[in-house]
Every structure is written in structure tokens, then in C-alpha cells.
């Protein structure tokens, strides 16, 4: 994308976008995929001087993704509830309305249908490379940063060496915070001596002694263990009988190396939780979740579940859309509602907001009732610009009971099945458990 040209279709005419896409997007422009459209709009934003983000991706009544919105990175309206009236915390959100709206056309290509290119803030082309959506560290630099870190060179000095080599901060596509974040991630992945080999040998033994045992280890380009997944024959057989709906949650436990425990959980005909495989992952980004979901899908014979329940994790949502395009995705209602005190606890009208939100979610018996109740909530307390509520409303078909109850969820509405399965391992594993101990204790449990 930095220097390469690419072609998109505008109606029936090809339009070549030179360099990084300096031409203005126009209504009717067609793209092969949503990701291609995102990269195009991001390149345009970098030239113009604004950041962009994925705003929403909406399904139709058949569960097919049909509509998307990409917005300026400074969209949403920031409302401070801080009691410090003198020293407000800086925030970039200013309710910018610039956005690109698209739909899936009859020819199965994404077509731009609306475009607002007017921003209510100053644009900064000279600094746009430092917006979050544009920052990146190439593999060669990552390797050198790791070498410097192993040699004991402090992150700030290591970063400054690349600044000097690039001829100044303006010529470097990442910030010192990106350097520190990358090194922190690498340190989490450095395993104890022999730990990764011990896990591999253990999995080999299990596969030899247990018919149907499945495992896969993901190694990085330097031969370090990055992610692992395993499932026994009982879990694989259970999935074929009770794999209609699964819950997936990574919030319970991290081991000695800060690798989140990621179980897939279902429910059987006795309404008991059943384990359908699990993993230990090095991060919670889209790439990692894609690897884990693809591995789990291969283990289960390539048959995706009808429904999956997760918390509100953007990277997880993106991976589900990519790996399970036909699976209905539901957000955990319990996770959403428990955030209410954190989001509005300091608001002077918290009690009223909580009462109306609970009424809209739990006490409405039709979509029209819900829409009326939501409008009442937002209008009465002037919450039109609240980013959290706005995001919940955009995703309402994924979590509000009146929208999701028409589908089969095997009696599950939250990821508490995963959490109850996590509780099952209490007493066997903890935050100090090594990888080898973890998989051995998993078998014992």
C-alpha cells in the first residue's frame, strides 16, 4: 500500500488510484471485499490527514453481512464525567461526522453508497503516518528490537537508534510506545528453558496413546512457541452431538507467561457444560484469534457452529466474521450489563439511566417497544453523543434479547458457561503454572 498502485471499479469503469490513493472516493465505487475498501479509505485518509476506524458491519435478516460504515477516527462525542473542572484529560473525540457508508451490491461487491468528506477539525497530513491505523513495525525492525532487548539495551535507546537511522522521527512509522508494547509482548513469549519442547513431547505422547487426540502448536518465524491448541477424542465427539452453540471466553486465567486460557464450551442434553477444546494464546489480536478459530474448526471436521457467544472484543468479532462467516454471533449480555456502573457510575442521573436501560433490555416485548424505550433513555438524559451507548445500539441485533431470542442458543445467553468451565480448573492451575504443568493438570482435571 505504501507505493503500489491498485485498481478499483467505479460503476463499469476502472479508476487507478496512484501512490497511496490521493483521489477522493466517489459514490458507486466497487471493491472486492470490505478489507480492500478499508485499506483504500485508510490510504486516502493518510494523504488527507485524518485517521479512520471500522464503525459497524451489519447483517440482513438472513445473517449475511450487507452494510458497513467506516468513520473518521475522531467520530463519537466525548463527554467527561470528571469532577476536576480545572484540568480535563485531553481527548481526540469531537463528534466528527465524516464517514464512508457501503453495501453489498447485487454482484457481490461492496459499493460506496454515501460519503461525507467534511471534517469538523483540522487535518494533519504531515503527522497522519503516526495515527494508530497507520503505524507499523516491519519484521526486520522487530527482529533488531528483540536482539537489542536481549542484549540489555533499554527500549528508549533502542528506539532512538532507529530514529537516527531513519533520519528523524518524521521518517519513522512507529512511536516509542509501539517499541515498548512490542518488547513487552516478546518478553511474555520467552518461555522457560525446555518448556516449549516439553509441551511438544507431551502432545506427541498423548497422540500416540489416545486415539483422536488433536493438538497444534503455532511457532513464530524464529522458532518460538506462540500459540497452542488441543482437544481430546471426547471433546471432538461431543461437538458433533452438541456443537450447535458454543461460548468462547479468554478472561479467566493467564499462566506464568501471560498466555490467556481460551476454552470452547458447549452444553449437552443434560444442560451440563462440556469442554470442546481449548488453547493458550500469546495475544488477543485478530491474527491470533483467526489462527485459533481455524485450528479449532479443522479439529472439529470443518463444521462451524450455528451460533457463538463472546464478550465485546473487537479483534474476536473480526476473527469470527472471517473464519465463521455463516455463524450467528451473539454478545454476552452479562458482560455488557456489568459495565453499566463503570460507564455511568459517576453520572448524577445514574439511577435513572440504569432503570431505563434495564427496562429497555429486559422488559420490552417487541422491536418497536425496544426502539421507543431506547429513544426515551437517550433523549431524557441527553446521551446522544455517548460512545458506549452508540456502539451498543449499532450492535443491538447481537445482544438485546428481543432481537436474538428468535434463534436457537441452547439455553445460553452469556459466556458464563465458559466461566463455569474456568472455575472447574480452579485448584489445578494458576497464574504461576508453566506450560507443561498446565497441559498435564488439564488432563488431571
Task: List the topology elements.
Blueprint: E1 6-10, E2 13-17, E3 29-31, H1 34-48, E4 52-59, E5 65-72, E6 99-104, E7 110-116, H2 139-150, H3 155-166, H4 176-189, H5 195-209, E8 214-219, E9 225-231, H6 233-242, E10 245-248, E11 261-267, E12 273-280, H7 286-299, E13 307-310, H8 314-323, E14 328-331, H9 333-337, H10 340-344, H11 350-362, H12 367-380, H13 387-394, H14 401-404, H15 416-424, H16 435-444
Parallel strand pairs: 10-13, 13-14
Antiparallel strand pairs: 1-2, 1-3, 3-7, 4-5, 5-6, 6-7, 8-9, 9-12, 10-11, 11-12
Helix pairs in contact: 2-3, 2-4, 3-4, 5-16, 7-8, 11-12
Describe the structure.
The chain contains 16 helices and 14 strands. The chain has helices at 34-48, 139-150, 155-166, 176-189, 195-209, 233-242, 286-299, 314-323, 333-337, 340-344, 350-362, 367-380, 387-394, 401-404, 416-424, 435-444; strands at 6-10, 13-17, 29-31, 52-59, 65-72, 99-104, 110-116, 214-219, 225-231, 245-248, 261-267, 273-280, 307-310, 328-331. Helices cover 38% and strands 18% of the residues. Residues 1-22 and 81-90 have low confidence and may be disordered. It has a seven-stranded antiparallel sheet with strand order 2-1-3-7-6-5-4, with helices on one face. The protein is globular and about 65 Å long. With 445 residues, the chain is of the alpha+beta class.
Amino acid at each position: 500500500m505504501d507505493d503500489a498502485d491498485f485498481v478499483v471499479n467505479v460503476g463499469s469503469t476502472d479508476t487507478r488510484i496512484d501512490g497511496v490513493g490521493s483521489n477522493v472516493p466517489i459514490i458507486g465505487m466497487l471493491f472486492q471485499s470490505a478489507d480492500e475498501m478499508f485499506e483504500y479509505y485508510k490510504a486516502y485518509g493518510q494523504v488527507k490527514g485524518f485517521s479512520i476506524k471500522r464503525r459497524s458491519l451489519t447483517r440482513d435478516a438472513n445473517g449475511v453481512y450487507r452494510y458497513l460504515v467506516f468513520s473518521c477516527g475522531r467520530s463519537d462525542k466525548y463527554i467527561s464525567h470528571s469532577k476536576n473542572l480545572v484540568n480535563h484529560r485531553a481527548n481526540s473525540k469531537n463528534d466528527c461526522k465524516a464517514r464512508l457508508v457501503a453495501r453489498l451490491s447485487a454482484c457481490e461487491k461492496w459499493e460506496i453508497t454515501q460519503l461525507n468528506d467534511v471534517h469538523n477539525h483540522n487535518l494533519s497530513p504531515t503527522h497522519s503516518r503516526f495515527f494508530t491505523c497507520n503505524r507499523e513495525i516491519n519484521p526486520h525492525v522487530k527482529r533488531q528490537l528483540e536482539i537489542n532487548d536481549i542484549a540489555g539495551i533499554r527500549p528508549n535507546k533502542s528506539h532512538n537508534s532507529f530514529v537516527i537511522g531513519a533520519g528523524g522521527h518524521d521518517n519513522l512509522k512507529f512511536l516509542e510506545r509501539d517499541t515498548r508494547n512490542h518488547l513487552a509482548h516478546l518478553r511474555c513469549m520467552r518461555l522457560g528453558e525446555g518448556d516449549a519442547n516439553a509441551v511438544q513431547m507431551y502432545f506427541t505422547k498423548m497422540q500416540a496413546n489416545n486415539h483422536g487426540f488433536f493438538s497444534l502448536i503455532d511457532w513464530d518465524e524464529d522458532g518460538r512457541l506462540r500459540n497452542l491448541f488441543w482437544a481430546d477424542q471426547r471433546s471432538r465427539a461431543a461437538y458433533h452431538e452438541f456443537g450447535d452453540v458454543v461460548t468462547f471466553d479468554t478472561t479467566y486465567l493467564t499462566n506464568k507467561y501471560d498466555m490467556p486460557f481460551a476454552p470452547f464450551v458447549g452444553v449437552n442434553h443434560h444442560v451440563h457444560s462440556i469442554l470442546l477444546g481449548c488453547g493458550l494464546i500469546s495475544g488477543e489480536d485478530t491474527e491470533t484469534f483467526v489462527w485459533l478459530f481455524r485450528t479449532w474448526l479443522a479439529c472439529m471436521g470443518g463444521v462451524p457452529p450455528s451460533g457463538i457467544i463472546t464478550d465485546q472484543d473487537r479483534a474476536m468479532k473480526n476473527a469470527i466474521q472471517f473464519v465463521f462467516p455463516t455463524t450467528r454471533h451473539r454478545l454476552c449480555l452479562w458482560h455488557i450489563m456489568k459495565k453499566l456502573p463503570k460507564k455511568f457510575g459517576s453520572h448524577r442521573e445514574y439511577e435513572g439511566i440504569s432503570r431505563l436501560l434495564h427496562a429497555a433490555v429486559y422488559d420490552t416485548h417487541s422491536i418497536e417497544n425496544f426502539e421507543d424505550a431506547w429513544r426515551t433513555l437517550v433523549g431524557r438524559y441527553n446521551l446522544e453523543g455517548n460512545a458506549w451507548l452508540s456502539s451498543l445500539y449499532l450492535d443491538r441485533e447481537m445482544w438485546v434479547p428481543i432481537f436474538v431470542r428468535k434463534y436457537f442458543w441452547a439455553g445460553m445467553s452469556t459466556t458464563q458457561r465458559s466461566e463455569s468451565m474456568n472455575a472447574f480448573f480452579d485448584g489445578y492451575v494458576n497464574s504461576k503454572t508453566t506450560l507443561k504443568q498446565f497441559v498435564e493438570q488439564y488432563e488431571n482435571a
